[in-house]
Amino acid sequence: MRCVHSTAQKQSWLTYVLKFYYITLLRDPVSRYLSEWRHVQRGATWKTSLHMCDGRTPTPEELPSCYEGSDWSGCTLQQFMDCPYNLANNRQVRMLADLSLVGCYNMSTVPEKKRAQLLLDSAKKNLRDMAFFGLTEYQRKTQFLFERTFRLRFIRPFMQYNSTRAAGVDLDNTTIQRIEELNELDMELYDYAKDLFQQRYQYTRQQERRQQRIKNHMQQSHQGLGINLWPSHSRQSLVSKLEDVEREEREEGGEGGRTEEVGNRLPTEDYMNQIINRW
């Protein structure tokens, strides 16, 4: 039997347009670095990664390997830090930046200091332009912003897990300082991201509370009057309620933005097995 489709049906199919949103999650650079070291230590490799940039992959001279053999399993943290070609260094900036601005993996095209600044500026710009980004160390706020940005609701709240593999590594101050130096760009990006993240969180909270206050004021007005107002009176009443809301906001002075940091080491939380359903 032949299936016949009407012109209207064909046209309706053309109305479906896919829209993509770029999102990312950032993590405290020291914790992220230690986590990758633990992952590599257990035998993980990035051999399947093409590192494609400007239509080509880097040559072995542009991106030498840190180890010989099939993997780098069993490497010590010192060995991990000592490799100058380790892509774990400043990985978050490199993953977010436009590498074509600096000649991709060819280190000879742009002076080192200028290269670093170009990559950092590019990563910041791309982060700002993303529809959403979250911070692993601020999981509840990340969930709040994700749900309000995409009008989705997680069935369960994000949980905080402090006993990660990275948190279990006992480090002295010298080692921590060395990791921070190796990830200097990531450290700057993360500080920038935290400030931007808090601004977005505070703004979203204030907008939500403002809408709720207006709703509460209007409900109280209707309940108290028990009658329908004339249009002119309705507008006057709404203006009055908006002024009340603005006055309350000025008196309150905004929310303090309580941090979720615990102790000296920033906690991390698990995003796995989170089920989403539509509002």
UniProtKB/TrEMBL annotation:
Locate the compositionally biased regions of type Basic and acidic residues: 242-263
Q: How does it sit in the membrane?
A: Single-pass type II membrane protein
**Per UniProt, which keywords does this protein have?**
Glycoprotein, Membrane, Signal-anchor, Transferase, Transmembrane, Transmembrane helix
Locate the coiled-coil region(s) and give their ranges: none
Source organism's superkingdom?
Answer: Eukaryota
What catalytic activity is recorded?
A: alpha-D-glucosaminyl-[heparan sulfate](n) + 3'-phosphoadenylyl sulfate = 6-sulfo-alpha-D-glucosaminyl-[heparan sulfate](n) + adenosine 3',5'-bisphosphate + H(+)
Enzyme Commission number(s): 2.8.2.-
Residues annotated as region Disordered? 242-265
Q: Which GO terms describe its molecular function?
A: heparan sulfate 6-sulfotransferase activity
- Decide whether keyword Metal-binding is in the record: no
Cellular component terms per the entry's GO annotation: membrane
Subcellular location per the Swiss-Prot or TrEMBL entry = Membrane
**Stated role:** 6-O-sulfation enzyme which catalyzes the transfer of sulfate from 3'-phosphoadenosine 5'-phosphosulfate (PAPS) to position 6 of the N-sulfoglucosamine residue (GlcNS) of heparan sulfate.
Q: Which family does it belong to?
A: Belongs to the sulfotransferase 6 family.
State what protein this is by name. Heparan-sulfate 6-O-sulfotransferase
